[in-house]
Amino acid sequence: MAELVITNLRKSYGNVVAVADFNLEIADQEFVVLVGPSGCGKSTTLRMIAGLEDISGGTIAIGGRVVNELQPKDRDIAMVFQNYALYQHMTVYDNLAFGLRNRRVPETAIDEEIQRVSRILSIEPLLDRRPRQLSGGQQQRVALGRCIVRNPAVFLFDEPLSNLDAQLRAQMRLEIKELRQRVPTTAVFVTHDQVEAMTLGDRIVVMKDGLVQQVGTPLELYRRPRNRFVASFIGSPAMNFLEMRAETAGAGMVLTGLGLSLAIPSRFAPGLAARAGRSVVVGVRPQHARLGVASGDDHVGLSGRLMVTEQLGDEQLLAVRIGSGDFRLAGIDPERVFAPGETIAAAIAIENLHLFDSETGAALR
Amino acid sequence: MTARRRILGLDEKQRFMIALIAPAVLALIAFQIVPILAGANASFRDWSLHDPQKTWVGLKNYLHVLGDHDFLTIVLPNTFGFMFASVGLSLVAGLMMAMLLNRRFAGRWLVQTVILLPLMVAPVIAAIMVRWMFNDQFGVVNAILGLFGIEPLAWLTQRWTAFFAILLTDVWLWTPWFTLLLLAGLQSLPPEPFEAAQIDAASPWRTFRYITLPMLRPVMVVCIVIRSIDAFRTFDIVWTISGGGPARATEVFSIYAYVEAFQFLNFGRGSAAAIIGAIIIVVFAMLLYRILNRWVEVSK
Amino acid sequence: MTRASRVPAERSKGFFEALAPGGRRMLFGLAAIGVCLIFAFPVFWLVLTALRPGYAVYYVHRGTDFTLDNFLEVIVQEAVLKGMFNSFMISTLATVISLGVTVTSGYMLSRFKGPIPNTWFSLIYVFRCVPYVSWVLPLYFVTQSLGIFDTYWGLLLPHVAVHICFFSWIMKGFFDGIDPSMEYAAMIDGCSRWGAFWRVAMPAAIPGLTALAILCWLYTWNEFLFALILTSHQTQILTVVMAQFVHELGMDWHLMSATGVLALGPALIVTIFGQKYVIRGLKV
């Protein structure tokens, strides 16, 4: 079994804390993505798992064994680096064989394994070439091959697609997903790109400033972000945020501000009553705002002046001025024509509203 | 805006370019090109102090040098042997020092300063120090050997021991140069292949042999070629330690040329020797560069 | 497929791994100390000999008499005094002139393309490879016929000429690392080409120039062959004076060592103070 259990992991450089209180249990063959802005501690965490960084506190256990004190080579892991880290002056074949040769695996076994893996990755014609003669995508496949050949308990990926251009990145994402089906192994994948996280991960760990913000499946993170940061990080175009005030209004609440008044019946947000008189941040995804006037008490309406339209071919994006900021709408009919400065009315289902505490950013429901 | 007049057929930009290099060109012509041409001229003439006719004799001087038994069997082998030995030893020692200095440790600054000490010592002074240390009566080397019951050696009056002292001086002087350049090379290597090697269970020796060394090859090639050219023309330390003796046994090429010109006062032959040496080293340097480059290319 | 590589195969423990971390560190420390001793020893021995009076030269390592008399005796000798002074002047002047002449040359090679820079670059490249001795012999005659043999100019100009090739190449490297858009901006703002060079590019190259100046000074201070051939009694240079002492003085090693230490002095001072400038300047 190769489950990866991380308990209370901490990393500090002197007084600076890079990773704090990281807890995670990864099941065998699960693919977990660590995602977050640069400096959030995701790479540091990965390198601690690999053994390339010392651990300041906590434990890491692979397959039931605590590996804190073990050298990288003894942890039964393999790693794909951002800039491939191939051995430039060795042929592709030797690159793949290096790790096995160091472990005194007999040459025939090595050759068998290399042939098998290069078939999976379609790099057989490249075996005699040197890394400098390969394209970025080919080099990345060789780096993947180097890992698969080792048959480790855990795969580690350190932003492997960040050096590729957008088109290649999309293609490699598919290849990695297909590879997973053929070689299912426990994996930890680090990236700053939320699209990669959403498409590749069984579960996603969102990190910021060394702290775990939320752990969940892609859909969980999308539908029920636990705080404002996760809500703003996941989903594209990013969520809109409106600073409003909660006031009591009859049996329910009303959110006021920015020239708007949103009526929230109590059945939708029972906890909101406790926040009467305080400010609340309302989050709305651009895809959830429909053009038109709100009808029924399960919808609320917004309106503002149209500033900019962006034509994407299969949809339009609108930026509507509300208060001092721009509210974006997505999924608008691309054929529809708008006049600049036109007043736009949008309706949003209340169940699609996200409410956050304006100080802590925590989700209110 | 600048005028677009052409003076002497050159526009403003070209005039500026020439103005920038004018002093350098003049100095180069007067004090490098002209002397070389004058030297070439002298080499074809019978020009010695007791015969100031400077009559043209064609290749007589060249043939004399190339036919000189001592030149072929002593001077050239000495020079090339010295070159290979010095460059080889300094390279290996420099590489070891560079690996040593590449990691952070307490007192590293001190070790670094000491290792770079030889770089600021004049070769002549280094030669003097060595000559004193290897003095057969009072030198410290013989004193230490005496502690082990070994008879004192007449270091500087025998060919091979004198050669050894000269070689030691050159290695002492130039290892720091190799160290500096190799250290800079080491520090510019990307860390990722080394991390991958850690994960790939490579031992320190295998990491060094299969990863560090190949990546350092370009820097090493440059160092070897430059240093080889310099080692070929060594003069200072040989002159000071042994004067080329005993009886010309440790004579190297530049001393040979000097002796011909300023002791035998035969400037024609001295110039011919100098030019022969120049041709040898230029050809050798090109060959060396080509061979080493192929070595680096193959590894790529 | 075999899961043979699933369990990491046993590797025989290398020598270094067999040692406990403490043992490894001790080996490393011993190596570092050994290295220091080897490199520092000749200089240490020279200084020690210089501090011992004449009669103690026969057993430098034993005995406890120390004296500064050697230095006093040596420093009043005319050859030594003049040698130090002349060497200092030549080193400084050669550095200033070489840098001055080559900085424009390097700038030109960096900023311009075309037949003129290409020719100049090839010329420099070829002459960089020619060994010194091939032209120092005829320089003897050139300086004599120009009447500058055994004078400052007779030594300075050849030094400058030698540096042209090497320094132009290095200066080109410095200027290659400086963004030319600042100079274009200056020219649009009304500077002439020379103004752009002098006021914008040069200041940016100062760290590199300083490093090169220090290295040039040290090189000229330590130089021997040119000084030997191109000077005689009028312009004595310290390195030549010392070499002559060796061949003439014979047994007076305490005096020799004192002279040697005196010759090392300025180089040591320049190195200690210049070290960080050199490292900073060459870090381009």
Description of the molecule:
The complex is a heterotrimer of chains A (365), B (300) and C (284). Chain A is an alpha+beta fold and 365 residues long. Chain A folds into two domains: 4-233, P-loop containing nucleotide triphosphate hydrolases (Rossmann fold, 3-Layer(aba) Sandwich), CATH 3.40.50.300; 240-357, Beta Barrel (OB fold (Dihydrolipoamide Acetyltransferase, E2P)), CATH 2.40.50.140. Helices cover 23% and strands 35% of the residues of chain A. In chain A, the strands form four sheets. Chain A has a six-stranded mixed sheet with strand order 6-7-8-3-9-10, sandwiched between helices. Chain A has a five-stranded antiparallel sheet with strand order 13-12-11-14-20. In chain A, strands 15-19-16-17-18 form a five-stranded antiparallel sheet, with no helix packed on it. In chain A, β11 (240-249) and β12 form a beta hairpin. The mean pLDDT of chain A is 90. Chain B has two domains: 12-43; 60-299, Orthogonal Bundle (MetI-like fold). In chain B, β1 and β2 (51-56) form a beta hairpin. Chain B is mostly helical and 300 residues long. The relative contact order of chain B is 0.12. In chain B, α3 (69-101) runs antiparallel to α9 (204-232), α7 crosses α9 (204-232) and α9 (204-232) runs antiparallel to α12 (267-299). Chain B contains twelve helices and two strands; from the N terminus they run αββααααααααααα. Chain B has helices at residues 12-43, 60-67, 69-101, 108-115, 123-133, 140-147, 159-187, 192-199, 204-232, 236-241, 253-263, 267-299; strands spanning 45-48, 51-56. Chain C is 75% helix and 0% strand. Chain C has twelve helices and no strands. Chain C is globular and about 75 Å long. The two termini of chain C are 52 Å apart. The model of chain C is unreliable at 1-14 (pLDDT under 50). Chains in contact: A-B, A-C, B-C. The interface between A and B is medium-sized, with 28 and 20 residues.
CATH topology call of the largest domain in chain A:
Rossmann fold
SSE arrangement of chain B, N to C = HEEHHHHHHHHHHH
Total beta strands of chain B: 2
CATH superfamily of the largest domain in chain A: P-loop containing nucleotide triphosphate hydrolases
Helix/strand/pairing category of chain B: mainly alpha
Shape of chain A: elongated
Quick recap:
The complex is a heterotrimer of chains A (365), B (300) and C (284). With 365 residues, chain A is α+β, with helices and mostly antiparallel strands. Chain A has two domains: 230 residues, 3-Layer(aba) Sandwich (Rossmann fold); 118 residues, OB fold (Dihydrolipoamide Acetyltransferase, E2P) (Beta Barrel), CATH 2.40.50.140.
